[in-house]
Amino acid sequence: VFILAIESSCDDTAAAVLHNDKVLSNVVANQLIHAQYGGVVPELASRAHQQNIVPVIDAALRKANISKEQLSAIAFTQGPGLMGSLLVGSSFAKSMALALEIPLVSVNHMHAHILAHFIDEEGFEKPSFPFLALTISGGHTQIVQVNDFFDMTIIGETTDDAVGEAFDKSAKILGLPYPGGPLVDKHAQLGNPKTFAFTKPKVPGLNFSFSGLKTAILYFVQKKKLDNPDFIAENINDICASIQYTIVEILMDKLKLAVKETGINQIAIGGGVSANSGIRKAIKDAEQKYGWKTFVPKFEYTTDNAAMIGIVGYQKFLSKQFETAAVVSKARIQF
Ligand code: ATP
Ligand code: FE
Predict the structure, then answer these.
(1) Which of 20, 94, 257, 325 has the most crowded CB, counting CB atoms within 10 A?
(2) Residues in the chain with pLDDT < 70?
(3) What letter does residue 65 receive in the DSSP assignment?
(4) Ligand with the closest atom to the CA of 140
(5) Where in this chain does the record put each Gcp-like domain (predicted)?
(6) Is the pTM of this model over 0.90?
(7) What does R_g of the chain's alpha carbons equal in angstroms?
(8) Residue 21 burial (10 A CB sphere; 0-12, 13-18, 19+)
(9) Binding residue per annotation — 185?
């Protein structure tokens, strides 16, 4: 089975070709235009997708050394995401499937961040069911109990900001360019995480809250700057390390509770923030510390990519979950 997968939910235009559960090509075009605005501008994202989609799909097919006629199906991201961005990918996928007379498969982007663990990669083991997934990304923060490929339940989620937003907004407060998450991580690796203490939010059960942390960081920085205008520049590594440490602690505390409540101790992380060095280390350390079995995705399958859409497409292809061209994109989508 050869699947062409298309991902265009936010600001990255991505295409991948899979042969069964193996990735033959995985191409991503990042849209650099948003950096100057300090965040994704939806209208500009849609336009950039329109410019990028043909060359990106072409590159994915060429790298995989596959012709269009060999494809078994086309998978695309149905949602959640920005409507204008989603429409570019879905319209292209529909037209191409119609022209080639092959099945069309729709994929939930958040399922894909989780099921990316089922891509066949040397040195990476696949989880077995049931397992818990911590999905940490730019728009979501969820703990999901995954019973099977298409049987999963959200057992905890953020009540306000997503963890990726917490990273990006903290970075913005510190004057780092957008998207700041990876830069906070870079500085954090050079700093001492115990330098500054930020209080962790008290949220009942398995839910999260990150908006308070952002405010705490803002007040902290404003206060310190009164005494020393160069405070941020002089302490950037320690500030970032302390912020990252706090965020990782919040995530790990909830995971520990989720393991206790469900009795499931296989944990997989996914989404853009699973690229973060702090959470990757904390999850791996939990194997020794708590006896969990943990799964950390290959770096290129953390932030948005089409390979993860392709693996869900492959699973849906096997169970013949196809769509007609009447399928609609959804900015918000039933999990
Ligand atoms: P969603 O998947 O919820 O729809 P999205 O697709 O926009 O949102 P992803 O691409 O999955 O989000 O993740 C992007 C987020 O990951 C951004 O907030 C970015 O700052 C964050 N991120 C990426 N790398 C790191 C890192 N090393 N440390 C911290 N955050 C990171
Ligand atoms: Fe994503």
Answers:
(1) 94
(2) none
(3) T
(4) 1
(5) 22-310
(6) yes
(7) 20
(8) middle
(9) yes
